[in-house]
Amino acid sequence: VTLELFFNKIEGSIPNSIGNLKNLKVLVLNGNMLNGSLPDSLYNLTKLEQLMLTSNNLSGSINKNLSNLTNLQVLNLFDNNINGQFPVAVLKLNNLKELNLSNNSLYGAVPKELSKMKNLTSIALAQNNFDLNTDALAYDTNGGSSTNYSIASNE
Q1: Cα separation of 140 and 149, whole Å?
Q2: How many CA atoms lie within 13 A of 88 on its CB side?
Q3: pTM here?
Q4: Contact 43, 18 (CB under 8 A)
Q5: Residue 91's pLDDT band (boundaries 50, 70, 90)?
Q6: Which residues partner with 122 through β-bridges?
Q7: What is the rounded CA–CA span in Å between residue 30 and residue 112?
Q8: CA-based Rg of the chain, rounded to a whole angstrom?
Q9: What is the pLDDT of residues 18-59, one digit of tens each?
């Protein structure tokens, strides 16, 4: 099941009832006027493969329960006001291929374990306040596939 409601000028927060869509595999809410934190119920969507919430005004930190989304392949939260430290729950998403957390208010260290994620082929962390440890991005264990990194404009 796919729910794509991008560029519809939807205002307000993502409703907690989103968690009732148990068979949802793709959620795209890009380019709306959504605000507030990600609802806790979102982390109950265990069949979710793509979560794309770019270019909204979402805030708050990413909950540790993100690790419940074990089928997630794409996590794109580009261009919001997400804050807090790097969400270490990402490290438990073994199927993740694309990670875009660029243009938010994230800070702190990027864990070196990120580079050990075998399926991850695209990492975008630009325009945050990360303390970039090059060890986190230094080697590629993707069995020969290349990983694209975007890490510009971090403090």
Answers
A1: 11
A2: 6
A3: 0.89
A4: no
A5: very high
A6: 98, 148
A7: 29
A8: 15
A9: 999 999 999 999 999 999 999 999 999 999 999 999 999 999
CA 23/CA 46 separation, integer angstroms: 8
- The pLDDT score that the predictor gives to residue 154 is 73
72-92 average pLDDT score: 98
Strand partners, 74: 50, 98
Provide the 3-class DSSP secondary structure of residue 113. helix
Side chain identity at residue 49, one-letter code:
E
Phi and psi at residue 146, to the nearest 5° = -85, 150
What length is written for the chain?
155
Cα gap 50→98, rounded to integer Å: 9
Across 84-110, average pLDDT: 97
Q: For residue 5, give both structure tokens.
A: 């409601």
82 exposure class (CB count in 10 Å sphere: 0-12, 13-18, 19+) = buried
